[in-house]
Amino acid sequence: MTHTAPLRVVVWATGTLGRHAIAGIDAHPALELVGVWVSDPAKDGRDAGDLAGLGRDLGVLASTDRDAVLATEPDCVVHCAMTDDRVLEAIDDLIGFLEAGVDVVSSGPVVLLHPGPALPEVFWQRIEDAGRRGGASLHINGIDPGWANDVLPLQLTSLSRRIDQVRVMEIADYATYDQAVAMGDLFGFGRPVDAGALLWQPGVLSMAWGPVVRQIAAGLDLVLDEPLQEVVDRRPAPEAVTTVCTEIAEGTMGAVRFEVIGSVDGVPRVVVEHVTRTHPDQVPEWPRPAEGEGCYRIEITGEPVMTLELSHHGEHGDHNVSGMIITAQRLVNAVPAVVAAEPGLVTALDLPLVTGRGLVPPSVSQEIPEN
Q1: Which pTM value belongs to this model?
Q2: Is the distance from CB of 227 to CB of 288 less than 8 angstroms?
Q3: Does residue 322 contact residue 348 with C-beta atoms inside 8 Å?
Q4: Residue 2 pLDDT exceeds 80
Q5: 288: closest CA among 251, 257, 333?
Q6: 7-143+324-345, what's its fold?
């Protein structure tokens, strides 16, 4: 058997997502954590194992010094920084990594998931040029937008004889989603129902989830009508709700349902839908998970008609905890494939099958206790 050296990996930011990426890299036999970048001076010099809550040191100290972290000569950056509220700055960061010759897997900005008109052509060309100069590739993914929205439904379409519509849904209770910026500034939970939160500005949903619609369409050889359609239904909380990061008063926004629709000749063919509550009793007529507090549901109409529901929960936590784990792990497990890919932007359609290779622990013999 041929043994190769582990790929050297840096984690960029250690918030809600990054801490799980550190744990994932530590558990992956083909990866070695060599550096951690943090924005918070209070985290500077702390051990990565401490930041990830592993209960043990990993011997890798976090640093606020960008150049020092890149001086560790990583093969890949697992970029976990919040990008939703700093899209252009994040793109500059990612391009800088490519120019430095470092491959990147990142959870955002999600507008880079698949090329489309949400960004001017100059941005896409900058990424391709930087990748070519540095000989490095960039892959944006996660779980949503990402794998559950595009890779999984496209795999399911391989069972189809005729496809009339592909609908992918996230149905979730966000009460334990510990991300104040997303809950407040992006969704507007706890604010007046008609408040102008970022997601509800015209075109923003198409920028965020439109790349998923376009990636599914590309996988099915569809040419979509332009622009994509956006449908939003915001509802007030019937009673006060306390979430882990946001207080939602009675009458303020407590739930939302939205769709991003890709049509062909006026017929909806690819639809991404979100049903988001902050309490399980809200808007009972909206779709609910078959089990648990959250799921991804794929509905394909045609021949045959198929429905697939993916539910998840953490070993020691709820579905929002496991949501962060599966987002981080899709990035971590994709590192070898992205490092091996051609320079430039790499979409999910460009990658081979990514699996949890090497993650099954060795068997441990257990003695049967005596009665």
Answers
A1: 0.89
A2: no
A3: no
A4: no
A5: 257
A6: Rossmann fold (3.40.50)
